[in-house]
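Record L-glutamate gamma-semialdehyde dehydrogenase, 548 aa.
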Amino acid sequence: MSSSAPLFDSAIGPVLKAQNEPVLGYAPGSPERAALQRELESQSQSAASIPLVIGGDHIDTRARVDLAAPHDHGHKLATVSQAEGKDIELAIEAAMKARQEWSRWSLQDRSAVFLKAADLLADKYRQRLNAATMLGQSKTAQQAEIDSACELIDFLRFNVQFAQEIAAQQPNSSRGMRNLTDYRPLEGFVYAVTPFNFTAIGGNLATAPALMGNTVIWKPAATAALSNYLFLRLLEEAGLPQGVINFVPGNSSEISARVFGHPDFAGLHFTGSTTVFDELWLKAAQNLKSYKSYPRLVGETGGKDFVLAHASADVEALAVALLRGAFEYQGQKCSAASRAYIPASLWPALRQRLLEDVAGIKMGNVLDLSNFMGAVIDDKAFRRIARYIDLARQGAGARILAGGQADASAGYFVPPTVVQVEDPGHALMQEEIFGPVLSVYVYEDARWADVLRLVDTTSPYALTGAVFARDRQAVQEANGALRHAAGNFYINDKPTGAVVGQQPFGGARRSGTNDKAGSALNLLRWVSPRTVKEAFLPATHYRYPHME
Ligand SMILES: NC(=O)c1ccc[n+]([C@@H]2O[C@H](COP(=O)([O-])OP(=O)(O)OC[C@H]3O[C@@H](n4cnc5c(N)ncnc54)[C@H](O)[C@@H]3O)[C@@H](O)[C@H]2O)c1
Ligand SMILES: N[C@@H](CCC=O)C(=O)O
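=>
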């Protein structure tokens, strides 16, 4: 990197308009299916070794943990190096060193790295990253394609567009002066702590601050290390300079203690559970006075996402939305439909159609592409979900209508489970389960207004939600009454599957800071703008006209 590179970009060329990456279908006989199957076979042959990546060095540590396939836990996929205290100090040093040059690169030059990364992912790396996501996180071909290929490519391309639009926003200048906004990166490093469930989210949390000129410490979820490390290698191939993103899998608490104790900590880019985000926020607060600047804390967290049906809803569309919304990726999307409110008049027809479809769902090893569902991520998740199913089985006021028999003998399999509850305040209607469990409350049609209040007040979260109605008045009422109940609100569609550039994603209340991943709003959190005024003809005496 040259130190004569420009300090900031005020002159930006025409903004490149991003397009969403088309989703491939993987139908039998298609070239993408054959390529994916070859890659799955190749990655299944032997266990990978995943190092730390600090300042461009790939470091194998003595402390390591094994990573297994969730759908076949006897199959070891990788051994993952574990960062310890001194590694974190080195990673922070590397980030601060790389910052000196990276923060001076022009936005155009930084953008080129991420645009090249998007192109590499759309082509050479597409099936490699999809296969790693399928094997490591137990996604089907469709679920991997919309995540590790399309959503991640979209994040990379749209963020470049949004960053350029931000840079082009400049203040007015009047005669005798010029004014500029210099979109500086934060003065320090950013800590990206990422979840297991979306390879795209991991990639975005690390790259969005980097695009804005920051350097990053990336702590991936242990169970997503295979796909996340492969993405880091892709970034290296795209030309990301050493030390800009430092990859440190390892013990979360130990890593966080070092990071939050460092005076150059400038921002947290987190996605995961509400409990962990609370913990990290408190750590930052405890250390606040030791930081150079007030850190930016961005966290997208849990959800208890609803589907509310009005008596005018289309039953077929509702049934499909519930099934896909609740059970795709085993219900492990923060956006997953988890509580449903169904009018009594529709329930008999809906129940029949939903249970018939659920009975036809195929679940199993994701190497078999005919499966609709794989396994949940690990033993801890399996046990948590099983506890909720037991609550439904044993507690009064709940009845299991489908599923319920979880089995962890070969992989962590939890079948799609539908529970009907009598009490709309049941724990199954309030708490995030993060598994394939859909709780249904059936209400009297005439109590629509009460149900709107119930949906709004039952759970502390406010991430996604959907209303199904053909009656326009009902749509309007739900849209108004549930304005603060979801950051992403859907009308006659499932509450999952937000697309970058189309439905910017994030929720409020206990679902996070709602900084909308994959939008300009998020990128603005990673800059600390400086206003520059230059006077061409500065005043040469201090007196004003009224003094004459
Ligand atoms: N709102 C969103 O956009 C969104 C998107 C995806 C997932 N999620 C949420 O994420 C959760 C599921 O993902 P998960 O199981 O990976 O979440 P998690 O909170 O268990 O883990 C998230 C990350 O935090 C790390 N972590 C855990 N304990 C930590 C600690 N004490 N200090 C520092 N880091 C720590 C984990 O290792 C992981 O990297 C769900 O609650 C889901 O709703 C939210
Ligand atoms: N874009 C995804 C985000 C899911 C989070 O886990 C969705 O909208 O379903």
